[in-house]
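Could you help me review a protein record that somebody else here produced? Do not assume that whoever made the record got everything right. The record follows directly below this note.
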Amino acid sequence: MLFKPICDSHDTDKLLDLFGGAANPARALWAYRAVDDRVRSAVTKFGDVNQQVMARIAKEGIRDGDIRGPREVPERSEDSSWGGWQTG
């Protein structure tokens, strides 16, 4: 099974847990691209919207509802110095 790394890797532990009792243990493998290639691909597909959002966040800070991951720790939501956001 292959996950699109940026979108689904946060759920890998849940999937692996489903096969915890299997005769052959489940494993995960991460493959990644060079950051320049990934950015070039995203800009080609989506334009500069990500750059616009990040520039606004850098200037104004995070507003309620800007970036929330499916497993975000609530106490981290208010701490803008923490860089572990997941888009969701």
